């Protein structure tokens, strides 16, 4: 990081106006401890000393600070740095980097506490004290130029170290109080850092911010307010050593801000009972808080800042939410305080504990959405409560959100509030799987000539819904057009099934033509009809068939009947199939004595001409179709038995050729 260092002038102590802190190095070590840091009759202080950088002038690396109306959380207090006290004064565009080349050593106790061998520029404030109560604490902020807002990857492990070392005066080993709450991890740049840079965040809950140019100190970042605390024995002499030093080299200074008046005895009433931490006061629970101190002469309990009448004992029983505190008088010069915040878990009210689904395959099982059940189970579930479901009251394996019951048709599972300790027994939740699987076969229905038709669904159920536009909700509907009509039927359990009606629209047929293949070796006729229907065909009273084409055994007149299979009507027509005789026997017996093509007049072809040839192509006879035919003579001579040929010139323009036999 590069900063422009600008200093107009600096005195031995400097007071900076506006939004920056001010500092004062004229306080003695005793004044810093007794008048600023402690300032209480509850702790007797002695043997105070301070040491720090040798800058060859009256400037120090320690002294008094005042927030001077700025945003610094502490109004005033004691500041220990690894550089000049005056260099800690903002704005943040200044840069504190003062300890190089001074022969300013580190601290062996700090090295031991933090596992270091390379500390430099140590500032140490230490003193003896005798507490009157069983706990001491003080508030602090750690700030550093090594909280770089745009570091290189090799700078992520740069950090300075500090420690608050406490021991009984007669002991040789220290306890470090400057640790991340609930751990033994020392507070340093790389153990408390926010996100937003290439360096990994660490314990972000305790990091305040990376600073911009208008911050009231020169340091590039700092922690939130932290509290160092320890249990002590009243009346016992202790020694405390507050030490900060550069680590690795003398560059990039850091500072410890100690809140004025915060080094004091306080009473630890135990952890807050909060919903967020899972340990609230349960509904109906009585919680006894014990503030007993051996040297105490009086107690006064407060609820939400108001004295509680008659609550003057060492213990107080709490049965509802609130912020509770106690004032403990040790003597006329020493009063200590303790506080605890209580939140209460409500008595949960069941909104709906019975849930049902409909079976689709009659096995009595269905998939329940347990996430949806969570949202409707209770009427007064506080935000943040975690609900999980279990198959038994003692099970520890939560059920998946998409859960299929393992016991067919009915099963009880149990809802547990898993992030609140000991306040709730498992809540039974009743699952039911209903079966609705009647046999409603599909129906095929015909409508004749667009007449109305009534579609009737099975009766006796809760509701009906047809796929019509608009939707109809009655057991029966009237339709007059073809289509697929589906009714959704719902029973009293809310389960549904469907029934389908396939409606066909029909009408009586109209025969438009009959195509006859005359004069072929295999005679056939095809019936052409017009109409909207499913038609069947029958020839001369025979069986009906779907094919409109018939093979005819012989020429002659035929009757065709066309029937709508849905019963919407029939049509009838006659036709003639024409052919020629394959032989004739002109022997005078009255049977087949002449060769003639019959029924041409039935199709208006009676004026057609016929030409008869012998096998050599000689024209033997020309006759009219309406005439009596050929008798087998040519020029009054009987023709012999043989095959003869003919050409039929029809008046419709067609020509038919064939042959026949003359038999004698």
Task: Describe it.
Keywords: Signal. InterPro entries: Choice_anch_L, Ig-like_fold, T9SS_type_B. This is T9SS type B sorting domain-containing protein. It holds the Pfam family CHU_C. With 664 residues, the chain is mainly β. The chain is built from 3 helices and 45 strands. The chain starts with 21 loop residues before the first strand and ends with a strand. The N terminus is likely disordered.
Which secondary structure elements does this structure contain, and how are they paired or packed?
Layout: E1 22-24, H1 29-38, E2 43-51, E3 62-66, E4 76-81, H2 108-114, E5 119-131, E6 135-144, E7 161-168, E8 175-176, E9 207-210, E10 221-223, E11 226-231, E12 238-247, E13 254-259, E14 264-268, E15 287-290, E16 298-303, E17 306-307, E18 315-318, E19 322-331, E20 334-342, E21 354-358, E22 367-369, H3 370-377, E23 387-390, E24 402-404, E25 410-417, E26 427-434, E27 443-448, E28 453-456, E29 463-466, E30 476-479, E31 483-490, E32 496-506, E33 510-517, E34 523-530, E35 535-539, E36 549-552, E37 556-564, E38 570-577, E39 583-584, E40 609-613, E41 619-624, E42 633-634, E43 637-638, E44 642-649, E45 655-662
Parallel strand pairs: 14-20, 21-26, 27-32, 39-45
Antiparallel strand pairs: 1-3, 2-5, 3-4, 4-13, 5-12, 6-10, 6-11, 6-13, 6-14, 7-8, 7-12, 9-10, 15-18, 16-17, 16-19, 19-20, 22-24, 23-25, 25-26, 28-30, 29-31, 31-32, 33-34, 34-36, 35-37, 37-38, 40-41, 40-44, 42-43, 44-45
């Amino acid at each position: 990081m590069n900063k422009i260092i600008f200093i107009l002038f600096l005195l031995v102590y400097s007071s900076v106006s506006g939004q920056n802190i001010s500092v004062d190095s004229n306080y003695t070590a005793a004044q810093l401890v007794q008048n600023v840091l402690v300032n209480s009759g509850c702790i007797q202080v002695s043997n105070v000393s301070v040491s720090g950088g040798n800058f060859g002038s009256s400037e120090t690396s320690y002294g008094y600070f005042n927030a001077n109306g700025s945003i610094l959380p502490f109004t005033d207090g004691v500041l220990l740095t690894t550089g000049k006290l005056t260099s800690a004064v903002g704005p943040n565009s200044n840069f504190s980097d003062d300890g190089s080349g001074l022969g300013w050593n580190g601290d062996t106790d700090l090295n031991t506490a933090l596992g270091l061998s390379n500390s430099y520029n140590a500032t140490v404030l230490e003193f003896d004290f005798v507490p009157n109560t069983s706990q001491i604490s003080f508030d602090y902020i750690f700030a550093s130029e090594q909280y770089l807002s745009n570091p290189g990857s090799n700078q992520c492990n740069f950090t300075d170290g500090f420690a608050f070392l406490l021991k009984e005066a007669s002991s040789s080993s220290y306890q470090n109080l400057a640790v991340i709450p609930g751990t033994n991890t020392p507070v340093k740049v790389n153990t408390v850092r926010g996100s937003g840079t290439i360096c990994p965040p660490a314990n972000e809950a305790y990091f305040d911010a990376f600073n911009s140019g208008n911050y009231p100190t020169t340091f590039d970042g700092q922690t939130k307010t932290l509290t160092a605390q320890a249990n002590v024995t009243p009346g016992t002499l202790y020694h405390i050593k507050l030490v900060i030093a550069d680590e690795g080299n003398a560059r990039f200074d850091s500072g410890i801000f100690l809140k004025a008046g915060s080094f004091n005895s306080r009473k630890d009433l135990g952890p807050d009972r909060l919903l967020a931490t899972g340990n609230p006061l349960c509904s109906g629970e009585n919680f006894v808080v014990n503030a007993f101190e051996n040297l105490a002469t009086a107690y006064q309990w407060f609820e939400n800042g108001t004295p509680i009448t008659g609550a003057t004992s060492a213990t107080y029983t709490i049965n509802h939410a609130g912020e509770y505190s106690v004032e403990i008088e040790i003597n006329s010069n020493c009063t200590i305080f303790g506080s605890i915040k209580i939140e209460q878990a409500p008595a949960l009210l069941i909104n709906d504990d019975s849930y049902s689904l409909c079976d689709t395959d009659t096995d009595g099982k269905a998939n329940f959405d347990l996430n949806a059940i969570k949202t409707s189970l209770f009427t007064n579930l506080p935000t943040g409560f975690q609900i999980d479901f279990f198959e038994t009251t003692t099970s520890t394996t939560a059920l998946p959100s998409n859960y299929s019951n393992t016991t067919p048709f009915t099963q009880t599972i149990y809802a547990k509030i898993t992030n609140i300790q000991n306040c709730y027994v498992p809540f039974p939740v009743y699952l039911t799987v209903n079966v609705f699987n009647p046999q409603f076969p599909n129906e095929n229905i015909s409508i004749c000539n667009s007449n109305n038709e009534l579609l009737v669904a099975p009766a006796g159920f809760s509701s009906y819904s047809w796929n019509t536009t608009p939707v109809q909700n009655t057991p029966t509907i009237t339709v007059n057009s073809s289509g697929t009509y589906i009714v959704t039927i719902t029973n009293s359990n809310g389960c549904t099934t469907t029934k389908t009606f396939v409606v066909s629209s029909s009408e009586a047929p109209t025969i438009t033509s009959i195509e006859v293949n005359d004069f072929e070796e295999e005679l056939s006729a095809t019936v052409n009809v017009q109409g909207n229907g499913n038609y069947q065909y029958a020839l001369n009273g025979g069986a009906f068939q779907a094919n409109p084409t018939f093979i005819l055994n012989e020429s002659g007149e035929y009757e065709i009947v066309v029937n709508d299979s849905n019963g919407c009507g029939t049509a009838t027509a006659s036709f003639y199939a024409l052919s020629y005789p394959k032989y004739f026997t002109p022997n005078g017996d009255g049977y087949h004595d002449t060769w003639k093509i019959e029924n041409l007049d039935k199709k208006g072809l009676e004026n057609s001409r016929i030409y008869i040839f012998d096998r050599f192509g000689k024209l033997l006879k020309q006759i009219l179709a309406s005439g009596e035919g050929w008798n087998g003579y040519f020029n009054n001579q009987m023709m012999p038995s043989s095959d003869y040929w003919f050409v039929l010139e029809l008046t419709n323009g067609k020509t038919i050729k064939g042959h026949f036999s003359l038999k004698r």
